[in-house]
């Protein structure tokens, strides 16, 4: 784990494209505190956070990262003040309406993971349209986690498997990890290589619990609206300094 690892951007340690993480997930934390620090309402922080989302997406394209998963709205976020929730959902819909054509133009496949049935019909229809429009794109898979949490994801996968067993399509003793993975909301983009959390907190907040089993964690005090290309670059450099063992011992140990 790392917190604001200091790496000289001009050092000899360059990012090697082949070693870049295939799948990066980000817990985008700190919008509210960013706004409070500036004497503004929290919604101004969320609006600034949208700009950071755009930067992160196009930086991921630039660095040839293939999958980017962003934690936009957790199932626990419904517990926030009603007006903030309404503002968040309005902002989500507005940003999606404006940006979906840009995503398509840049060959980005958009997927919204989470229980979208709790959203109003307009949001659901926009999500379905956006996913349909971009479904054949392959430069980057962009997963937006909305009304999502990791326990829910695993539970839903188990329910789907149970239905297959009930219909005699699958025998209990034949159930494998691949069965569970294929029924997760992330599907084709299951395993996370690098998990980044901004905002100075050291927890994973019920995000992608199955998918981060072997992920490298990177924590930074930078608040999400201030997370720019330089900050993302440092996170990738930190990742490239890690030895990913997967339980093995390296030859020189």
Automatic annotation (TrEMBL):
The keyword Protein biosynthesis does not apply. Belongs to the UPP synthase family. Homodimer. The lineage of its organism: Bacteria, Pseudomonadati, Pseudomonadota, Gammaproteobacteria, Enterobacterales. Pfam families: Prenyltransf. Substrate binds at residues 30-34, 42, 46, 74-76, 78, 80, 197, 203-205. Its EC number is 2.5.1.31. This is Ditrans,polycis-undecaprenyl-diphosphate synthase ((2E,6E)-farnesyl-diphosphate specific). Catalyzes the sequential condensation of isopentenyl diphosphate (IPP) with (2E,6E)-farnesyl diphosphate (E,E-FPP) to yield (2Z,6Z,10Z,14Z,18Z,22Z,26Z,30Z,34E,38E)-undecaprenyl diphosphate (di-trans,octa-cis-UPP). UPP is the precursor of glycosyl carrier lipid in the biosynthesis of bacterial cell wall polysaccharide components such as peptidoglycan and lipopolysaccharide. It comes from Candidatus Pantoea edessiphila.
């Amino acid at each position: 784990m790392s917190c604001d690892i200091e790496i000289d951007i001009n050092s000899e340690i360059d990012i090697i494209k082949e070693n870049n993480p295939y799948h990066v997930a980000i817990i985008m934390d700190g919008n509210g505190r960013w706004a409070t620090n500036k004497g503004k309402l929290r919604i101004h922080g969320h609006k600034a956070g949208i700009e950071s989302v755009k930067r992160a997406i196009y930086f991921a394209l630039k660095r040839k990262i293939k999958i980017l998963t962003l934690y936009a709205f957790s199932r626990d976020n419904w517990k926030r003040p009603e007006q903030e929730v309404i503002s968040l959902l309005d902002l989500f819909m507005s940003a999606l309406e404006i940006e979906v054509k840009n995503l398509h133009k840049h060959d980005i496949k958009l997927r919204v993971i989470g229980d979208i049935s709790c959203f109003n019909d307009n949001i659901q229809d926009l999500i379905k349209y956006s996913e349909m429009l971009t479904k054949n794109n392959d430069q980057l898979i962009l997963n937006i986690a909305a009304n999502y949490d990791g326990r829910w994801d695993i539970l839903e996968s188990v329910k789907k498997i149970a239905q297959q067993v009930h219909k005699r399509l699958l025998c209990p003793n034949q159930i494998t990890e691949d069965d569970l993975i294929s029924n997760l909301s992330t599907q084709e983009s299951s395993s996370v290589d690098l998990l980044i959390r901004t905002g100075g907190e050291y927890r994973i907040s019920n995000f992608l619990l199955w998918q981060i089993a072997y992920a490298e964690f990177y924590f930074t005090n930078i608040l999400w609206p201030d997370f720019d290309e330089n900050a993302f670059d440092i996170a990738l450099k930190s990742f490239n300094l890690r030895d990913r063992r997967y339980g093995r011992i390296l030859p020189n140990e």
